[in-house]
Amino acid sequence: MPLHEAHYQHWEGVRSGIWSRRAVIAANGLRGCLRGKWLRRVLAACWGGALAQVAVLFALGQLLVKDSLVARSTNNFDPQLRGFLQGLVGWLEQHPEISVRVTQDFLFYQLSGYLTVFTMLAIALAVPHLITRDLGSKAILIYSSKAITRWDYVLGKAGTVFGLIGLTWLGPVVFSWFLGNLLAPHWHFFWHSRLALLHAGLYGLGAAAVLSGLALGVSAISPREKITATAWLAIWLVGRVFSSIGNAPREVLASTPRHWLEHLSTTFNLSQLSASIFRLGDDLQLARENVPLIGNLLHGANPRALAAVQSPDVWGAVISLGVMLAIAAALVAWRVKPE
Amino acid sequence: MTPTAPTPVLEAARLTKRYGRVTALDAVDLQVRPGAIGLLGPNGAGKTTLMKCLLQLQPITDGHARLLGRDVAREGRELRKLVGFAPEQDCHIPRMVGCEYVTYCAQLCGLTFQAARQRAHEMLDFVGMGQERYREIGTYSTGMKQRVKLAQAIVHDPQIVFLDEPTNGLDPKGRVQILELVHTLWREHGISVVLSSHLLHDVDQICDQIIIIAQGRVLVHDTLENLKARRRGTAEVVLAHRQNDFLTACQRRQWPCDASPNGRLRVDHGGTDVTPVLELLREIQLVPLEIVPSPNVLEETFLHALETSHATA
To answer: Is A223 exposed, middle or buried (0-12, 13-18, 19+ CB in 10 A)?
Structure first.
């Protein structure tokens, strides 16, 4: 009698291609990440931000509807704010093709900044699921014995981070743009805001590519989960300290050139890319010309912060992020080996 | 028409692997036919390194290797769709349940999810895993881990499987079961098996070709049948009683014979099979409990090869 009733059978079927196998690694990694309750909470915060954005876009649209509750309630506002809103409404009515783009550019720039924070948190929670655990359990050996190379493995893991950023960032942006404009009083809001979506999407994709690479590098630092998660948080928070150099008192900073230490911060570099993609300098100029009160509001802003938004140091950011990515790639190449 | 020789499943030409100054594989030349192949050698002989070089898990320093007739260096990734590997150490993907893990491994070799899931269950049945397949691998016993390792190595229906010490840490019953499963892979399903082990008995039970490797060099490569043929004139006889009668009869025929501490009698009869021993037993009217032709041939070949290797070194 055979030891086991089940018998071996040969398999005949068509095997999937390499991109499908990479996608399997990405999907498996993402499933592993989403099992964590803290990550699900961070996701909820991201989508909550998207819903808030929908509410703001809806309220903005309702300002154009004379009898709406939102339009009527502005009568109770502070005179300065009421004046600002009246100027904005006038601009939206006269030049919707410019004003819708500019206002949504600004709103999506803000939303992207908010989502960056939560995405960084989400990655801190996901970093141990990427390469760290596989290093700890020597699973790289199993991966390498399958029909993939170690670079396919790395691409798959990058897909995991990309998928995660899709959920924490790109998804909320697209969702809020679509629903926000769907609730607007005119269909042309969709058309006029297409550039805002394009800018937010471009920035999101660029940031996703950069953060994926950096997350993989940090994940490959050690086989211990606590070490890599802490390393990610440390890099982020120390970076924020460097970037806060720009927030020193204006009398100190007004005469000093931009400080190179700021470029040690990933989020600062990303914010420079963001300002350049959204072209906020042009938008602010247009807004200032059309809504007089905006000029007054900007007068009180930190000149250094304003300069960072109006004339971002794109090349400095690109070079810094490039160096960071090169270090991350070297770390991955060094650590991700079967033995 | 004469039948053509089967294509070698494994070929190596001056295959060399160095780790710094240490030479783990020293210009290995091999041509191995399909079958159940036993890779023997002491610890640190280069068995695992040879397997890893063939699977491209380690870069080759010099020389060439081919698996299933295809160049390992050029076609490594696609080739591994047809190759299975069960490493010696535990290297499971963490926090996965057994069934999920085997499915995932099948997907990494190109099976679609549905096919992979179905195959995973079939292979887990085949290796004798029950409901444990729904538990996290981290909670498995050594025996279960070995079974899952075997399942993940064959789930994608490979043409050749490399098993590195598959019976390590198993109890006798588990060892027999795993060996039986491995045995059926070649005997019944035509999947070549390369079994690396330092347990000669395991290899003796299921392999038909033997490669003995030491200090990074291949010392012996032959079929088990040929190795046994070299020592056909020896037999081991187990008797329940009257051992002395048998020893006396052997002395009369001038056959060297001695008794081992476990009571087994080893006799050099000089024949090509055990017929002379049977005739002698019939003559003295003794019924043996067991007769083992060419006993310990593997062990003796192994030790002899190692001694020769040391002497040469």
So the answer is: middle
Interchain pair A137, B81: CB under 8 A: no
DSSP B234: E
Question: Which helix (H) or strand (E) segment is B78 a member of?
Answer: helix B72-79
Confidence of residue B113 (pLDDT cuts 50, 70, 90): very high
Q: What are B18-49's pLDDT values in tens digits?
A: 998 889 998 999 999 999 999 988 888 888 89
Note whether B126 contacts A134, CB cutoff 8 Å.
no
Q: In the 8-state DSSP scheme, what is residue A129?
A: I
Q: How far apart are alpha carbons B21 and B24 in whole angstroms?
A: 9
Let me know if B59 is exposed, middle or buried by CB neighbors in 10 A (0-12, 13-18, 19+): exposed
Nearest residue of chain A to residue B49 (CA atoms):
A339
All structural domains of chain B, each given as residue ranges with its CATH number in brackets, are 10-228 (3.40.50.300), 232-293 (3.30.70)
Domain segments of chain A as ranges:
18-335
Residue type, B119: R
Percent helix, strand, coil in chain A (nearest 5)? Answer: 80, 0, 20
pLDDT in tens, A127-180: 998 999 999 988 999 999 999 999 999 999 999 999 999 999 999 999 999 999
Is this complex scored with an ipTM above 0.95? Answer: no
Q: How far apart are CA B55 and CA B104, in angstroms?
A: 19
Residue B258 pLDDT more than 50?
yes
Min CA distance, A188 vs chain B (Å)?
44
Q: Which residues contact A97 (CB under 8 A, 6 or more apart)?
A: A192
pLDDT tens by residue, A83-119: 778 877 877 787 777 788 888 888 998 898 899 999 9
CB pairs under 8 A between A and B: 116
Edge-to-edge strands of the sheet including B22-32? B22-32, B10-19, B62-67, B70-71
Find the largest Cα–Cα distance for chain B: 71
**Amino acid at position A176, single letter:** S
- Give contacts of B189 with chain A, Cβ < 8 Å: 8, 10
What whole-number distance in Å separates Cα of residue A322 and Cα of residue B171?
Answer: 55
